[in-house]
């Protein structure tokens, strides 16, 4: 376990969660140690280490709540899986992280595959979830919903059958180019993405994970969404090439108590402006008017 000074007087703790027969999970938290302080769990997209969550989101949330994250198995600094696994196994990983940090219930933010894990978590263990924020995600393929953009499918297929790069500079470009494909209409900060990718490549480099298999094997669960009785915020970009905006609209229609925010021009991504916005919204959700110690929401 490693400790360092975190946000707003909190302590940032890094720890490896080791379980018999399961890949170890690289976890982290920013916590103050105050009793009864709300917690927010971040669930990352497929193949993305948790370090990609923008600092602006962490800082805004960290002012009023503990923040917990982890690298999904097969990603970042977490362990490699030796056998195929399912989305339900990734839900079990999330529950194990909550147990590790003694969190009984939490606000959950999930993006892309992380949003799928968040939905499943709310369905199987609703008592552990206070609110859901689902970003750029879906409840699986459906004939009446559009699939990924054909040009993106073609490019991803080319990568699937090509040899992965071995040179670190090419590996950085490999990661950044895919992020650029996922970006929306309003431009892409390639330089910032290259800095992040360089850090990832130096720490951990993978081109093959079981995330895609887990998502495909999960099929679809649209018919179960009516069982989610948890306040839910659905955030979706109008220019998402992976899950077109119709997926976000249908999520909001199917989940009771859900609100939908469509962001014009946003792709399959969490931009800095979106991170700041999500942070403010979570902050408003967490802060209770009767608690004078908490700062007012901006």
Tag the structure with descriptive keywords.
298 residues; alpha/beta; nine-stranded mixed beta sheet; 19% strand; disordered C terminus
Notes on the structure:
By secondary structure, the protein is an alpha/beta fold. The protein has a single domain, classed as Rossmann fold (3-Layer(aba) Sandwich). It is 36% helix and 19% strand. It contains nine helices and nine strands. It has helices at 55-62, 87-100, 113-124, 150-160, 168-182, 190-203, 211-218, 245-254, 272-286; strands spanning 2-5, 11-19, 22-31, 39-43, 66-70, 106-111, 129-135, 232-237, 258-263. The chain has a nine-stranded mixed sheet with strand order 1-2-3-5-4-6-7-8-9. Helix 2 (87-100) packs across helix 3 (113-124) and helix 5 crosses helix 6. The longest helix is centred in the middle third of the chain and has 15 residues, at 168-182. It is globular, with a radius of gyration of 18 Å. The relative contact order is 0.15.
């Amino acid at each position: 376990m490693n400790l360092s000074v975190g946000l707003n007087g909190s302590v940032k703790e890094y720890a490896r969660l080791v379980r018999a027969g399961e890949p170890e999970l690289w976890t982290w938290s920013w916590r103050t140690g105050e009793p009864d302080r709300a917690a927010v769990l971040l669930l990352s997209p497929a193949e993305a280490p948790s370090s990609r969550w923008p600092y602006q989101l962490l800082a805004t949330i960290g002012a009023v709540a503990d923040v917990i994250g982890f690298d999904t198995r097969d990603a970042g600094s977490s362990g490699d899986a030796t056998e195929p696994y399912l989305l339900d196994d990734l839900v079990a990983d999330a529950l194990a992280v909550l147990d590790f940090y003694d969190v009984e219930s939490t606000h959950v933010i999930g993006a892309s595959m992380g949003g799928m894990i968040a939905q499943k978590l709310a369905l199987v263990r609703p008592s552990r979830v206070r609110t859901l924020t689902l970003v750029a995600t879906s409840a699986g393929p459906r004939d009446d919903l559009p699939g990924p953009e054909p040009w993106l499918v073609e490019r991803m297929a080319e990568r699937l059958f090509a040899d992965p790069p071995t040179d670190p500079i090419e590996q950085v470009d490999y990661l950044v180019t895919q992020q650029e494909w996922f970006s929306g209409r309003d431009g892409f900060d390639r330089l910032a993405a290259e800095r992040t990718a360089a850090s990832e490549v130096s720490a951990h480099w993978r081109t093959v994970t079981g995330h895609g298999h887990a998502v495909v094997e999960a099929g679809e669960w649209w018919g179960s969404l009516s069982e989610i009785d948890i306040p839910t915020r659905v955030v979706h970009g109008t220019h998402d090439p992976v899950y077109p905006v119709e997926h976000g609209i249908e999520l909001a229609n199917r989940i009771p108590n859900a609100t939908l925010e469509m962001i014009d021009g946003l792709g399959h991504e969490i931009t800095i402006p979106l991170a700041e916005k999500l942070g403010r919204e979570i902050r408003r959700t967490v802060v209770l008017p009767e608690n004078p110690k908490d700062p007012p929401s901006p």
